[in-house]
Each structure stands twice: as structure tokens, then as C-alpha cells.
Write a structure and sequence with these properties.
By secondary structure, the protein is of the alpha/beta class. The protein contains eight helices and six strands. The structure holds flavin mononucleotide.
Length: 191
């Protein structure tokens, strides 16, 4: 059976992380359910010049699900437990807050809630600068509830030369958290 991952893209800056994850995960033949929030589509356009039709055309194997489709199978624990994990990349402070407080307004919040209750790995690639106390408290809340909070902040110890290398460092960290093997960045002291 194909390994399955839910990938959610929200309206934080860093749409490129979600886009690169799509490239990498589909190239590994993983089965992807993709949920993009309405703000996520706006930022994909603002930052990458990508419209919904173009993105979906580029990744025909991806199962795109509307953020409004609250009856989708991934909203149910009995189905989500079949997944390797749920990745929200990038994750806005708004989506973080909804998951931290269990106030579901769309399918992304619901999938986050279900992942926590079913102990399905949930990874939030958060992006904001600076963080307010509210943001930090919400991160602590979801972390205590079992989520992995990964800041969209690349390291520089691998001496990157290109933007792609910086993006791949962060995307590699996401894959590390899901225990998916990759060669996206050079590990510390790796030849
Ligand atoms: C170009 C752009 C960049 C944004 N960057 C961020 C950001 O880095 N972090 C954040 O929390 N919100 C950011 N926002 C605001 C979110 O899109 C907004 O809070 C939205 O309601 C989030 O909704 P969602 O979580 O359903 O996607 C940005 C908005 C735009 C248009």
C-alpha cells in the first residue's frame, strides 16, 4: 500500500515550502491529500505566481480537497490513522491558534484536531516574525498536545549558496520529523 500524507498549505509567508514539499513527496511516490486554505491560495499567487489550476496541473497525482469539505474521509480519525502524518506548511498563526484551541472553522483545523487525538504525527511549519506571547503560548499548547512545531528558519552551517538550498534545508527537516529518508541537505559533519 502507498504511504499517505496529508499536506495543508495555509496563508503564512513561505508558500515555497508547501510547493517544494509537493515536489519532493510526489517524486517519492507518496500518496498526497492536499488541502489549501483560501488565504493559502492568495499567498501561492503572491509569492510564487501560481494559480490553483496551474498547481493542480503540475501535480496530477495529488488528491486536492477543499478546505470546506468537512465530510472528507481525512476529517475522520478512523481514516486519518492510515496516514504517515499531517504536515501544515507553511502554518499561519491563525491556523495554529485554531488547532491550539480546538475551534474548527475548516478542514485543515479539523485534520489538525483529529491528528492530535489519534496521535497521528502532526507537523506545523510555523511562520511569523516576531512572535507575540499569544503565538508562543499557542505553540507551547500544541506541542504539549503532541504536535511538532518546526519554525520555518533554515540553518546556515551547511554553507548554502542558493535560495533552493535554504528551502531544502527546512523541507528536509520536515521529512526528518516524518522519518522519511532524503538527501535534501547535508547533515552535520556528513562528507
Ligand atoms: C502575502 C501575505 C503574507 C502573509 N504572511 C503571514 C505570515 O507569515 N504568518 C501569518 O501567520 N500570517 C500571514 N499572513 C496572514 C494570513 O494569511 C491570515 O492571517 C489568514 O487569515 C490566515 O488564514 P489561514 O490560516 O486559514 O490560511 C499573510 C498574508 C498575506 C496576504
Amino acid at each position: 500500500m502507498l504511504e499517505k500524507v496529508v499536506l495543508c498549505i495555509t496563508g503564512a509567508s513561505g508558500a515555497v515550502y508547501g510547493y517544494r514539499l509537493l515536489q519532493v513527496l510526489t517524486s517519492m511516490n507518496l500518496s498526497i491529500d492536499l488541502v489549501v486554505s483560501s488565504s493559502g491560495w492568495v499567498v501561492l499567487w503572491q509569492e510564487l505566481g501560481l494559480r490553483k489550476e496551474e498547481l493542480l496541473k503540475e501535480f496530477p497525482s495529488v488528491n486536492q480537497v477543499s478546505e470546506k469539505d468537512i465530510a472528507n474521509p481525512i476529517a475522520s480519525g478512523s481514516r486519518l490513522i492510515e496516514y504517515r502524518g499531517v504536515v501544515i506548511a507553511p502554518c499561519s498563526m491563525s491556523t495554529l491558534a485554531h488547532i491550539a484551541h480546538g475551534t474548527n472553522q475548516n478542514l485543515i483545523h479539523r485534520v489538525g484536531e483529529v491528528a492530535l487525538k489519534e496521535r497521528v504525527p502532526l507537523l506545523l511549519l510555523v511562520r511569523e516574525a516576531p512572535y507575540s506571547q499569544v503565538h508562543l503560548e499557542n505553540m507551547l499548547k500544541v506541542s504539549k498536545a503532541g504536535a511538532i512545531v518546526l519554525p520555518a528558519s533554515p540553518g546556515f552551517y551547511h554553507r548554502p549558496h542558493t535560495l533552493q538550498e535554504l528551502v531544502d534545508f527546512v523541507v528536509g527537516k520536515v521529512l526528518d520529523s516524518l522519518r522519511i529518508k532524503h538527501n535534501l541537505y547535508k547533515r552535520w559533519k556528513e562528507e
